[in-house]
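Researcher: Please generate the 3D structure of the following complex. Treat every line as part of one assembly.
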Amino acid sequence: MDTTVQLGVLIVGTIGLATIFGTYLARMITFEMRPLEKTLARVESGFYKVIGINATRQMGWKEYFFALFLTNMVVVVFVILVLTFQNYLPLSEGKDGFSFDLAFNTAVSFITDTNLQHYAGDQQLSVTSHMVAITFTMFIAPASGIAAAFAFIRSFIRKNYGLGNFYVDLTRIIVTLLLPVAIVSALVLMVIGVPQTLQTSVETNTLESIINNNSSNSQTINIGPVASLESIKLLGTNGGGFFVSNSGHPFENPTGISNMYEMFLMLIIPLSLPIAYARLMGKGRGLAILVAMLIGFGTMVAISTSTLSGPLLLETRFGSFGSALFDTVSLGSNTGAVNSALAGMSPEAITSFFLGMFVQAIPGAVGTGMMTMIIFVLLTLFIVGLMVGKTPEFMSMKIGPKDIKLAVYIFLLHPALILVPTVIALGTGNAQAIVGDQVTPMGYTQTLYEYTSSAANNGSDYFGPSADTPFWNYSTGIVMFLGRYLPLALLLAIAGSFTMKDRKEVIEPIKTQGPLFITILVTVTFLLTALTFFPFIILGPFSI
Amino acid sequence: MKSMKNIDSNKKRSLAGHFLYNLQTSLRILVVMVVVLGIAYPVILAEVGQVTLPFQSGGSILEFNGQKVGSKLIAQEFESAKFFHPRPPGDSASGVDPHITPENAYSQIKNISDATGIHQNSLRTLLNLNIEQNKVTNGLFFAPPYVNVLEVNLELVQQYPEVYDRLQQVEKEDNTAALNGQSQQQQKVKQRGENNLG
Amino acid sequence: MNKTNNNNNHKKNNTLTAASNSINSKVILDSFIKLDPRYLAKNNPVMFTVELGFLVVLFVAMFPNISDTFVSQNQIFYVETAIILILTVWFATFSESLSEAQAKARVDSLKRLEKEVTARRILHGKEVVIKSSQLKLGDEVKVYAGETIPRDGLVISGKTFIDESMMTGESNPVFKEKDDHVLGGTIVTSDSIVVEITAEAGKSYLDEMVGLIQNATRPKTQNEIALTILLAGLSIIFITVIGTLLFSAYFLGYNTDIATLVALLVALMPTTIGGLLPAIGVAGITRLGKDNIVAKSGKGIEAAGDCDVLILDKTGTITEGSRSAVEFIPLQKYTEEDVGQVAYAASIQDNTHEGKSIVDLSEERKYIPPMLEKLITAKSIEFTAETRVSGIEFIPNKSIRLDSEAEEELRNLAKTVTSQQEADASTLEGLEETVDKFGHGKIHDLLLEMEKSSQSNQQQVRILKGAVDVMIGESMSNSTLNIAEIKWKAQEVSKKGETPLAVSINYEIVGLVVLKDSLKENIREKLAEVHATGINTIMITGDNQVTAQVIAKEANVNQVMAEAKPTDKLQRVLEEQQKGHIIGMVGDGTNDAPALAKADIGLAMNSGTAAAKEAANMVDLDSDPSKILKVVKLGKQLLMTRGAITTFSIANDAAKYFAILPAMFAEDNPKLASLNIMQLHSPETAILSTLIFNAIVIPALIPLSLRGIKFKAQELQKTFIRNMLIYGLGGAALPFVAIKAIDMLLSTFMR
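Model: Done. Output below.
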């Protein structure tokens, strides 16, 4: 009963919200009138003026990517500086500066929307760091991803004209999408019980100490600006928790209601983009992508809840189902914020999490999830599309060798970024240093998971602060970096290729909509993923 | 602004100029957005929270006898056999959640009854009330039934002040004094409990 | 249709058996040469990787003691594995060699024709024997029965049957007369002809064709390049997977056997499509060649698959292109016979197909005018672009003398109207009378009267036929002309999709001759097939809107472009392309050349002008415009074959994991034994049977890739579902069954 209601509310609620947000996003993409357009436009142009953005300037794919990359790198440098020197900044409360390797890892982790954390947030970060390094970056990273998706979608609409202006998109996405929703969500979470204060801790007595009049027996409760971080952490599919236990911590996720609300937040933008796509490119096409995502996601839920997880290392207030569902949403949307310890989850659940990170598109992170699904559409069309005896077309545009080349690179990159570093970590003994000299299937799973999570820009992991060593900080940092910017560059290059193509009202040889196409898309996506990663699932979680 | 315009007017910008233009914009974005998102956003929310939701914003800290007794959401150690005990820290994901399953709580009833002399049925009722209360908090369907150990223990102390007067052996006069003082409080707590249930 | 196919097959089988021995040894030799790793690295990365795997396993087979960690099986297993691996590569090179040999066989047979022959050049009325290579453009040569035509040219006199089978595959000799094109290398089988040479040395059709076939075998098409990239990408992924799997297993403390890993890699890589891809491409061109179409590159064929608009000339493509008289329609004052007689007279000196058909129709209906001897010898009024009428002009009462040729002709004519004996027996005068007395009607009487009227009145008689509007103009001087009636009747004819011609005698319009262009055989069915695959057809014609619409409806064409000028064709091609369509069109005239060049698939007729052939990307040697439909079908088939085998190849992989993974690790990790869902006998048999399956799939699919997968004219969606079920679902299921079967077979030997 509970499980059905939870699942039902989640699906109906997110799709309902996504329909509203999708329409809004569609208008943002094509600069159409939104509700309160006048006010919003005035705020936006205020930002353009202050920042100095020439809003009418159009960018080709190269410039768009360059602007995205440079903006992100400026943030990386800033975050590294803040973290390294946080002890010199206000409200440091005696917290030490990060080592360079940890600062590098953390900066890359947050700007790439990964949020892998090799540190304990509530213990190692000052309030200032939490606000200006972490919370701030949690807006920039998803906004960059969504901006790229905007440009990507525009490439199917416009011909021989720019993909938009990155700075304009970034500003608009932050100011008129992420920030308002984050503020409302932070308030909602506060009502439910998530703290929001500039204090770092509260000293209290314990019940026993009060009764015994023994004031020495007191406790320190770590606290801080949690709600403001929590809302954008989930809305932007970032996933980096304020506390080590992330969304398992009662301050981040106090009740079953907050658990459900946070799942909404994670899914809302990833599911809104296909709907925006449907508004702009045809209902059927967008719906096909949405349904394919939901089938993939449904498969993940089915696998992860097929066996009971816990009860050890799970939160009592969520139980096996509430934990598995939340984590599946989090892994599917590549957020990475889990409300349980991964070690407490069943091998089936872990397999399901791997599936989410391997596919990266069910529904995937904000922006990149939808783009990745479209890459799967391209590959599917090309593999099976020739069978009708015509050159495969997407949106009535021929899929040429260049597009296939770029799509194959994206597809090739993922296993390479996961598997090669895993072997290196094992070969250099760095994995054994954490998982023990005798590598068990569990130890192997943990190592594989670390890089899978990094490459997929997910961020959940088994290791946490125990991986705060130069090797792990640098290696996962590099994997996260490549796993983010290479696919983004390739995706935008595909967008660039499509803007140059002729598009006319010609019937597509294979309609990219309808039950038949969805079935084949899901099958090909699953098959390609399985063929690549099957042996590792077998050696890892399957053998636990 | 001025320099940017100059760069912009020069249509065939050099690569270096191109880089500089974008770097400048990126830096401006950094400054503006750090102020808006990194400072204004959390600070204003914290201020709003302090005014409108002081209890939650401050970490849901409960008070007992005018003293902070811990957060409603965070587990604390109980050594005495007279109290319900949370899970050992390593057993849950966060290690700090004050929640246990009803089964776990029921299984502790006998020991507590033995240590306090409180009737098992009373303890069971107390647990059930807490379970029901939590169910409401979780919108009936969104969480499995559980017991908040801190809340239940607080309830115990408030309902049975004579039992929880002193956890260790103490002088008698202190005991009576405390009993007098607490009987008044007990009524208050009862009222609160009813309110919560309502 | 069926009959021709049978004939062709029969003939091809003969050639195949005759040449098979030499071809086979050549193919095998070539397939071994192609095993050269340098060749494979450049042309077939998938097979190159398999060959590297072979070398690794071979090395291990020779030195089984080099490693304890990565070599754990016995030596025989490595030898077996190595053999299967190299066989896999060889199957691939063999398929490529075989398809190339087929293409080459055609080139060779053509080249044999090209050998030097002697030619009899006519110089100042005398025959001079020279070598064919010395012939120049415009030279006239005489070719007798049994001799080879030295180079392409135009018949300027004589009639003959020519054997063109070596060029076109058409086994029946083809009749050629004045103004027909003949091909160099073909053989005159009867009589003799004089040919004017129209091609320069080395530029004859044969030369071009050889060049085209040779060139056509290589440059890769866009789809082929994209597919190669995809396959290379998949291969790299699997190499990454296997490489990291090796170490992963090692760190987990499992025994990892290098040969087993190579086996898994080879099994996973898209070897089937990788091995057959070159063969499929070459086979497409060869198959086109068998239909007597020469493609200048593979690109055109592939574009044909994408074609979604066909622009078809009405004449020659949809209709036979020669209009024949089918009916006489008299004006009110006259009878059908009157019209027939006038039409007969007007056409008696007209040698065009139309003219002949009018005479034939009149003879058939016995509408013979009198005074045939005068009509035969009358002055012919030729059709000119200016006058746009044709007919005869004569003086009825002027006596004439018939030469022997005319007498012969008259006798023949008489035979058709009278009984044979009568015509043979009677004297010339008698003959005339016989013919004259067979006629009836107003015109008959009028003409006989004219002949009998006074000698001094040498009145001219003009009998004409022509387009209705022109004829009305010609006859304006005639006051009794009922223009309304003529126009009405002409319109009625047009409505039926037929063409009216008016005939007149001395500017008196007698009636109309109805000309009809008959539809090509099976054109309705052929076009229905084309439409089923989602292609739109547009008919282009100079006919008026009404006529064009009728024919379009009859032939099942989607759209019509009536009253079109030659330049409109190009305009339409560009317009359709602007809308994003891929255009196929057929042409033969010089004025078609720009449109042919612009169209995505331009099929020129061999009988067409050099400019048209130059501009088109394909040439049909049979000069059959409806072949464009065949080209489209073939293009689709080519793409479908590639797609089907790719899908099949990838779908195969699932089963291979289930066969090999448990075989690899079950010993160290008992949990994996549950993956052995096929219950294979032992790790060894599991690996060998997977590899054997992987290898034999290639030769098993060679016939399919050479022939192309079955093409069914139906909706794309249906084709898609059908192929998805066969090659997708079938491709996933087949290896489970086949590997299990091979495993059972192997296990009986291994025990």
